[in-house]
Automatic annotation (TrEMBL):
Cofactor(s) listed: FMN
Record's protein name: tRNA-dihydrouridine synthase
Organism (species): Psychrobacillus psychrodurans
Active site (record annotation): 109
Domain DUS-like FMN-binding: from-to ranges: 22-323
Keyword check for Signal: no
Keyword annotations from UniProtKB, A to Z: Flavoprotein, FMN, NADP, Nucleotide-binding, Oxidoreductase, RNA-binding, tRNA processing, tRNA-binding
Top-level lineage group: Bacteria
Chain's role: Catalyzes the synthesis of 5,6-dihydrouridine (D), a modified base found in the D-loop of most tRNAs, via the reduction of the C5-C6 double bond in target uridines.
Length: 341
């Protein structure tokens, strides 16, 4: 293993313990999930994107999304917006009223609802606007400011180098690059070579993102692009071990074993309990359905389990079922093992 894989990296004055970062994911990266992933060793966690207007208008639900457990830090809190005034006001609020360590601006979200507001990936077409937005936020907050962006709008408009340089000139402290264009949405492959081009063009830390699906992918991205850290999104869904196994692999070159069904269900239950504490039973039971199906991925009998979980209405019912499923699966595993051995 090269030292380059394990070297800590810095954003502003914040030193991260390692180079493995949890990606921001809307509807997923709330405190319950982030803390769980953090405990699996993530060097930095990103919160889900939060609307600048929701913050400025003090929308109750939006403000509740700003909750951070102190065990999560270092944490980057991402805001989105297409107008300078509200973006700055929201950033000031995050700066003064939250324990986030870094304020991140979303310049990658590809969905129409966000693009129509001139926010998210819309900004990728205009390096001057990126400069203005980042400079205005940097001038008004104390916390370091970063941007998460895509490589460009489409194959004909790949302005990632100009955009990253604009972020750096404007005083941005880091940039995360998802190696897809807006038009690609989540299809095709992330182009890591374009991420490498950004890394070579700026002096601020660059976090590479897109299609890191295994610890080996993480190492390959660090080696091939020279980025300061790797950001993992979908591969961590229902699988915080992906973070732990990646940190371990980058440190020692050893691949830790995959978790057992019992371990998966234990963490699923812990995640669920945190979600109940954060959002209350009704919302947690509904939100946990998608998470549970990710935790169950690849486990025998998961189809039936998913159906059962989707019909579950109370927290106790869900807990009981997850415990029952773990027990049954473990029994089955022991039986198979005794036959094979
Ligand atoms: C369900 C979901 C929600 C996402 N929400 C956000 C978000 O709030 N902010 C953001 O910058 N990117 C968001 N992304 C993009 C991810 O952060 C990441 O860039 C993308 O999934 C590619 O990385 P991966 O291949 O490791 O998943 C989201 C992705 C998914 C799948």
């Amino acid at each position: 293993m090269t030292n380059a894989s394990t070297k800590p990296f810095k954003i502003g004055n914040h030193v991260m313990d390692n180079r493995v970062v949890l990606a921001p994911m809307a509807g997923i990266c709330n405190s319950a999930f982030r803390l769980t992933v953090k405990e699996f060793g993530a060097g930095l966690v990103y919160a889900e994107m939060i609307s600048d207007k929701g913050i400025v208008q003090k929308n109750e639900k939006t403000l509740s999304m700003l909750y951070i457990d102190e065990r999560e830090n270092p944490l980057s809190l991402q805001i989105f917006g297409g107008e300078k005034e509200t973006l700055v006001e929201a950033a000031k609020y995050v700066d003064q009223h939250t324990s986030a360590d870094i304020i991140d601006i979303n310049m990658g979200c590809p969905v129409n609802k966000i693009i129509k507001c001139e926010a998210g990936a819309r900004m990728l077409l205009d390096p001057n606007k990126i400069y203005e937005m980042v400079a205005a936020v940097v001038d008004n907050v104390k916390k370091p400011v970063s941007v998460k962006m895509r490589t460009g709008w489409d194959e004909e408009h790949l302005y990632m180098v100009e955009n990253a340089q604009a972020i750096e000139r404007a005083g941005g402290s880091a940039v995360a690059v998802h190696g897809r264009t807006r038009v690609q949405m989540y299809e095709g492959h992330a182009n890591w070579d374009l991420i490498r081009q950004v890394k070579e063009a700026v002096n601020i830390p660059v976090i590479g993102n897109g299609d890191v699906n295994s610890p080996q992918d993480a190492k390959r991205m660090l080696d091939e692009t020279g980025v300061d850290a790797v950001m993992i999104g979908r591969a961590a869904l229902g699988d915080p071990w992906m973070i732990y196994r990646t940190v371990e692999y980058l440190e020692s070159g050893l691949l830790k074993p995959e978790p057992t069904v019992q371990e998966k269900m234990d963490i699923c239950l812990l995640h669920f309990d945190r979600l109940v504490a954060l959002k209350g039973e009704n919302i947690a039971v509904r939100e946990m359905r998608k998470h549970a199906s990710w935790y169950l991925k690849g486990i025998r009998g998961n189809g039936t389990a998913r159906n059962k979980i989707n019909q579950t209405e109370s927290a106790q019912e869900l807990r009981d079922y997850l415990r029952y499923f773990a027990e049954e699966s473990s029994k089955e595993y022991e039986e198979v093992k005794s036959i094979v051995i």
